[in-house]
Amino acid sequence: MRKAMMSVFISIVFCFILSSGFAQETAPAKGEGGMMPGFASCCLGPRIGLEMNEGKPIEIQEWLQLVVIGAPLCWYKGYQAAGVGGCFAAWLLGPRVGREFKERNVRTMEWVKLGTDVIGLPIGRLMIALEAMDGKTMTEIEQKENLRK
Question: CA 142, CA 33: separation in Å to the nearest integer?
Fold first, then answer.
């Protein structure tokens, strides 16, 4: 069952990447949206692609979390920035969610991502990735959803 769900997830991500490659004429201006922020939001963390649209780069420990040794680095960075709550947020929701835990509340969409990941469906990941591909920024979402603490 687990292998079947993983193959469905990989197939959806693959189709997602292919379809975004064919829709380049409707993509936002350079530096705002596109395939790379969508990939970053889907695979590295929910806020990474949204902040890439603001010009913030992907940090090394966020790339390293793709391999097992990098994840504890992200958790530790969350702990350094926001204490135990930041560590848990980095572990469950994503590295930047943990680091920004003191300044910004957790989005409803990030909770949806966690819930759908638990049951094995990538729905929350794909919805956040689509926001990043459309060129939305974390600052816009923060103001719209009133996330500032």
Answer: 17
Higher per-residue pLDDT: 20 or 92: 92
pTM over 0.90: no
Q: Report the amino acid identity of residue 98.
A: G
**107 or 8, which is more confident:** 107
Q: Which residues contact 46 (CB under 8 A, 6 or more apart)?
A: 93, 94, 96, 97, 107, 109, 110, 113, 125, 128
Average pLDDT across the chain, whole number: 82
**Spatial distance between the Cα atoms of 44 and 61, rounded to a whole number of angstroms:** 10
CA angle (83, 86, 88) in 5-degree steps: 110
Burial 7-27 (b: 16+ CB within 10 A, else e): eebeebbeebeeebeeeeeeb
Rounded Cα distance between 62 and 46, Å, is 12
Give residue 23's pLDDT band: very low, low, confident or very high (50, 70, 90): very low
